[in-house]
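User: what does the whole thing look like in 3D?
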Amino acid sequence: MTLISDLNKGRLVAFVVLLVVMGGLSLLAISWIRVVTDMSFFLPAERTAQTQALTVGMQRPGSFIMIRVTGDDPIDLVQASDQITRTLRDHPGFAQVQNGRPFLSPHVQAYLMEHRYLLGPDIAPSAFSIHGLQESIADNIQRLSTVTGWAFRDIFPRDPTGRLRQVVSGLQWQEGPDRVAGIWQDAQGRALILARLHASAGDLSAQSVALDAIGQAVQQVGLTWEASGPGLFGLRASQRIQEDMTVLTSLAGGAVAVILFAAFRGLGPVLLAGVPVCLGILVGAMATQMLFGSVHGVALTFGAVLSGVAVDYPIHLMGLQQPGDTARTVARRISRPMIIGAGTTAVGLLALTQSSFPGLAQIGTLSAVGVVTALLCSLVFLPYLVGNRTRTPDPVYMQAIWHWLCQRSHLRARARIAVGILFVVAIGFAVQSNTPVWETDLSRLNVAQDEERRLDADLRRSFKLPDARQVLLIEGSDAQSVLDRQAIMLPLLDDAVAAGRLGRYFAAATILPSQERQRERQDILPGRSDLMGRLEAATRSLPVFAATFGPFMNDVRDQKNMQTLDADALANSPLGPFFLAPWPVPGGYAGIIALSPPIQLQDPRLTQDLVDLVQVAGQIIAEYRDQAVTLLSIGLGIGMAMLVLGLRHARRIIQVALPPVGAVVLTAMLLLAFHVQLNLFHILAFLLIASVGVDYSLFFPTVSNRNPVQVQTTSTQATAAYEFRSVTVCCITTVTVFGILSLSSIPVLSAIGMTVALGAGLSYLLTVFCAE
Amino acid sequence: MTSGLKILCLLILLSSGIAPLHADWPGAWGLAQLGEALADAPEGRVAFTETRSVSYLDAPIVLSGYVLRQGNRLEKHIVSPIQESIVIDDTTVQVDTAEGEHHRFDINDHGLIKGLATALRATLIGDLKSLDSQFKVTLSGADSGWTLHLVPLDESVRKSLPGLTLAGAEGFVETIEIEGENGDLSIMTLQHSVP
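Assistant: Here's the predicted 3D structure for the full assembly of 967 residues, as structure tokens:
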């Protein structure tokens, strides 16, 4: 390997320094940087209750997975459903697994038992009168004659009035799809199983473990299955992105290596080309971690993509090395245009840091720091690594092409006209197109695939689970007042369900009454000696002695005197996974009542709190995009000012600025003409197009070679050929990398890939056509 | 819920009592002859009353209804005091309550249920020898009045089911006594209409 074989002292030192610095930084980055993968990237720093409502479902513990099992034989299916359910119940990842048969996990049952008078439906004031006790005890003795009543045989002395059964039957999660042969089945006769996890939907590793457990459980019975749930979208998307990225980055890496090898005929340049970008991303990520306390995965990805413009810098450094040049001479020669180019890019990116959306600000910080670091690395450090010997071959072919181009200025003039016409036609198509410019369908921003979303909607319908879209969002000064407000709404919701205007609802207040109400209930509970007397009177006509009910009297005494339960207590109890606890928001607390379709609420006392979360998300995304456009326009303005200051000649300024600006506008018009709606990621792609475009036009040789930026060292034609090669290699690399990215199955990545590949190519062509 | 399983086990055995044992037993009378009679049992519907003594109640709960056998399928229908039906086939126990609830249990789910199901099948097909693997079987009396006493061999099963006793005269099972935990005792009396 030539890189190693002719190591002189300086290069050896540089090489060791590089290894130490990169190794050290990588270790530091791995141990220090906290990568976040939740939805917070898309949310503004200022969180209202509405924006928090979007993410709270992903963050709270107790996410669920809906499972659908298909089998040919109905009897086998019932057994399979039971067996899968049993297997999963033994798995520690699941808080509760249900397939339609009555079941309560022992922990939940014990907790309900110990708090049965504080939780659940109201207690009639007469429940503890002599007559009330007599009636309920007599009823429960009779129930012992049945199989289902016999299940309560052992707890009868502790709960002779059947309060536990009453509380359990009031639990909403006990209801669900229709039962056939005792198990939940959908209309097509497929078994339905609902698995409730301890972990949140955002905990992707827990989701992965759960999904594997489900897969194994179903495999044991040898049937086919499908599953969906709020956490599985993220899990599958991340798996898909990982798979995609592994394949695409290997492809892109290989392609770039081949291109660089073909251009420079050596392994050294291939390896060195990546150094500044890698260093830039590392330093950028660490700067982001330092400023924001964490780095969002999306910001990391797109920050890295935007830093990718810096791959051009080492290519210029190595590609412009002419016979007799040392790398340091080249670095000095190209420092001015490179600083102007990188400066323009960095300023544009820095504008993003002013965003009120931390995600956007992180992208700006990471990529701006990354670009500047890569620039410094390319100009200051890399020359030591490249060494002084010219290794890059003479650009023979490029020289021939360059000659050909120079001699055909009429062709370029025609091309300019053709581009002008294309421009007009594209604008025409874009203007007459009735497709809205901005993406408003949020699902297209989503990394979930259409079939996954259809399956999810289908399963939610079968399970009669709430749609994630419409909720009642209740705010209050504290958690208690949220629950109190919910409690007032419960009868109204019951009315709506009875009238068929609402499917089901899930509210924290159903299980947890207000603390005031709990105290009222404690007042209803008699003292121990009082209860003893009443039980003696009540059991006089019954075949049981009051003394049997020692455990009952203890329970009543304990629950009469126990601390009332608040939302925190319940959230941390075994009931936590089933409990939509209110959460703190600026200025108080908020809570959600989840709703199942149909949702046709009419009562203004309910509709005033009805929130369409998809609409909320849409507003946020629109605001996000508008802010990105505004900030990037400001950045573009400052970048232009940088160009003006750096280049000073009006003609040169136009020559440098026209191709990138033209390429961005033309790309946008072409996308619109082909009915592609633009979103935030297109805007980031435009930024990248502009940065590489400025780089191309800055380094592109002038045909007449009166380049004011250029310090001329050798014959102008030879220099021009080197510059032409350098820019061409940059363009081919960029177009190849992003062309490969456009093959991604993830819409967002594919859109970025296509946009940048198209824009970079156009930028290059415009540079060629517009060169003097 | 083990107590739920427990009662199901009891029910399985209760239902086995409906197989009338009418056959002529030549020569020495014993398990083999009883088995032959069971194997030849006709199907039918028999009324029952059951008194269920629970340790903490000082009067038993009295149930009544009818049992029904069709092939390997056994049904127990409680009519009073609260309606409920229990259907037992080869592998499952299904319960339908008056409130419209439906429950289903797999016989193989639980050692206790499985043992009792074996007992039931063995009784039904007359293969009383297969009981040996799970019960200590004692037959006493004669064809005019016999008692079949079963004690589970498995200690954990024996804890919730100390023993059960089927008693009959000639071809008919007349009573089934099932001992439960804490001294609970269930006595089922079958009212055969003599064929």
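In plain terms: The CA atoms of residues 90 and 116 of chain B lie 12 Å apart. The mean pLDDT of chain B is 73.
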